[in-house]
Amino acid sequence: MPATPADLIDVDEVIGKYYDDVPDPSNPEQRVIFGTSGHRGSSLKTSFNEAHIVAISQAIAEYRKRAGVTGPLYIGRDTHALSGPAEKTAIEVLVANGVHVRIDSRDDYVPTPVISQAILTHNRAADGSQRFTGDGLADGIVVTPSHNPPTDGGFKYDPVTGGPAPADVTNAIANRANELLGSYRSVARVPYEQAIASSLVERFDYREHYVADLGAVIDFDAIRSSGVRLGIDPLGGASVNYWPLINERYGLNIGVVRPKVDPTWRFMTIDHDGKIRMDPSSPYAMKGLVDELNAGAWDKYDLVGGTDPDADRHGIVCPDWGVMNPNHYIAVCVEYLFGGHRPGWPKGTGIGKTLVSSSLIDRVATSINAKLVEVPVGFKWFVDPLFSGEVAFGGEESSGMSFLRRDGHVWTTDKDGLIPDLLAAEITANTGKNPAQLHQEQVQRFGESWYRRVDTPTTLEQKQKFASLNGDDVAAQTLGDEPIIAKLTEAPGNHAPIGGLKVTTKNNWFAARPSGTENIYKVYAESFVSPEILDRVLDEATVVVDKALGE
Length: 551
Hints:
This protein is α/β, with parallel strands linked by helices. The chain contains 17 helices and 23 strands. A hairpin with a 3-residue loop joins strand 21 and strand 22.
């Protein structure tokens, strides 16, 4: 259903509380908490306020000094109401610490992958490899809560690797920020107008830098010669001004379907839980777009892609199909990319997937004799494998992916929502079939599966209990009528703890874990047998989770 006036935020209230409300460091809900994608919260809940950003920015400045990072810090923001104020606060603190900051030359929004790409190209050696030590290395900050509701703010640090920081780094930054939180007013700052006029702040053309480099990762010749008509819905996000330049630079046929930017996101339809959430992979959030396409806009496009507010997520919409399940699109992408369309990739490189992504990807990988590397949830687990060439592609069920340049070097180590949309056009151009049609062919070969994720509200205390889950919590010998063959608390690809539990059979599995960014826990499940068996798997998973939480 469309958003109503009652669903919309009061932008002035959200921004006003950012400055006026002060968090209580003794309240766990108001402290700095770095999840899988940085610190997130809302000024309305006193969990994302000026004090938080002052403390985190100071902690980052201290961390990069200890780490010997002496190059520029690339910073960008998305279109959430809190992102602009938070970016300004961060610049005030960083300049006071003597940090050389690069901001957008147009004062425009900057997608998450654009920051990653800027860091990596800055840190690239002459032979195309990456430098991790030495003078002048760059890092970055992205001010975004990604696809989260309009009330929210987010703040993420990218170290010299260009992707999400590992736990030891985020823990150090969060711990120091929480030490500073109660005395944040004592942290040195330079007034914003004075800061951006200083020699420490440099304007950088993010859009030109990123767009000019895209030909290194996407086959634009194929798209251009085929005449594929690609529509794009930026969902009111940071990629909105990138698509016209991509279209012009590469001579394509791209149209921006809804080029609207509005911090209330009044043009959105409500997501599955009754909230405005700008998720391009959600059929609920994308219903307004799909309705518009079905009402006649399909006459203009062969397929449509979407990106979320910081453009680190993608969504693919095909005629006579609707919004593709991200798992299905990942399976199509890996079969295409590893099936001869990237001859410059390293021999023997693998497919990276999170362990809550569909087993359809496993079956595709087996069919093409590709190595599968299964990691915990969080794109940070793909950073090192992408650098080393262990994987050439990393994808997760929540519609995040990135893959190597065509010459085999790293592109981004954070999720990039723009290149999957462009890849959908490349796939269509080179195969003559859109991704939904190719998925239907995969179903014929590998079987149909039913996949679902169930989110349940929880508390911080309950979320911590998930760390103690183990195979002994599953007394049953079967799952969905099949013998259990594995009870995992570590990811098979890197043996890292998954923060929960995954139970598998030949054709069924479930995984339970807490969210790293919201007070919910998630149960994922899939069955290659039937939707009825999927329901049973979810019921049996609930028994395990309830026992672990003491309910």
